[in-house]
């Protein structure tokens, strides 16, 4: 690790998150850890901790991700959340990766190529997102028949597009899920899953589901809206309550017992400091002109690492104080307006306990999901366990 930019993942926190989730929600049989996007930017080494703490299924979005995990974890079942290209079936089969079947035409094609009663499949139902899945009831029945005859139908699932906290869509999607599965003998399907992180926090268990897919919550982000005690917040709540009543939106819960903490930090280091005179420029394209004599520190991190180019103006944390990024974000470097307390070699926190991913996300008008997943796999990762570095991935 010669370049001093790295991600630090606190495995103790991750394990505490899983413990808290499962302790407060022991009602599921399958806790499916969503590890796509390189484990939401955290790197796949943390899979050890997930499994240790009770995650008993994983979900990936590419065969490559599945293969990477399979190298170190031979037993954990892995579900590929997207349809697989027919020429990759053999590899998936050898790697014991569970397939998602999301179209009848695809399934019919597949039967011409391969039949194998051991090949595990989950059928994806389209209940309203219109991304993947079968939405016609007859097609669902037909697909289930084909899979049960030729393969192993291990699961059926769908995906919520809203939180369902004050919207009707969630209820409608759930009803569609029930409708599509009406008349199917669910006792012959070992896994049924529909919920994601916020479903767990905000809704009671869906009776027919025995699995839950956990992403952002495991990584330490409870995205449920917090109670806002301000006048505006109360007004918003009154309006939401009226909507809930008017449209017969199902009651939600707010599980406040689950305690999760973000476990990813992103650090860099000051490698040079420039004295910039009033009127001089900083960075590319005249994006910043000094209004007075200032000190500009340079750190080796840029958009090639996944740092958003719109980060100009957002704060980083150095030696107990906040300093703004100025000038344009470069491919591999940023410039920070500092003071004389900052020296070459000082640590720069770009994401962490003082600069939350939530703050960065709101600065960029996006979500913590995007901020985390944007971090390039090429950034080295230090994994901390019991306050010591237990593994470095370079
Ligand atoms: C199909 C599917 N299930 C589950 C998840 C996990 O969602 P969350 O991170 O909100 O728990 C995702 C995330 O994108 C997803 O696409």
Can you describe this structure?
The chain is of the alpha/beta class and 394 residues long. Helices cover 28% and strands 22% of the residues. It contains twelve helices and 18 strands. The protein has an eight-stranded parallel beta sheet. A five-stranded mixed beta sheet has the order 16-10-1-17-18. Helix 6 packs parallel to helix 7. The mean pLDDT is 95. The site of pyridoxal-5'-phosphate has 10 residues, from strand 9.
Mean pLDDT: 95
For this structure, what is the CATH class of the largest domain? Alpha Beta
Name the beta content range: 15-25%
Spans of 5+ residues with little confidence (pLDDT < 50)?
Answer: none
The main pleated sheet reads as: 8 strands, parallel
The global form is globular
Count of structural domains: 2
| Portion in helices | 25-40%
N-to-C SSE string, H for helix and E for strand: EHEHHEHEHEHEHEHEHEHEEEEEEEHHEE
C-alpha-based Rg, rounded? 24 Å
Ligands bound, unique? pyridoxal-5'-phosphate
Number of helices: 12
Biggest sheet strand order reads 8-7-6-5-4-3-2-9
Number of strands: 18
At the fourth CATH level, what is the homologous superfamily of the largest domain?
Alanine racemase
Distance between the termini: 7 Å
* CATH topology value of the largest domain: TIM Barrel
Q: Based on the structure given, which CATH architecture of the largest domain is correct?
A: Alpha-Beta Barrel
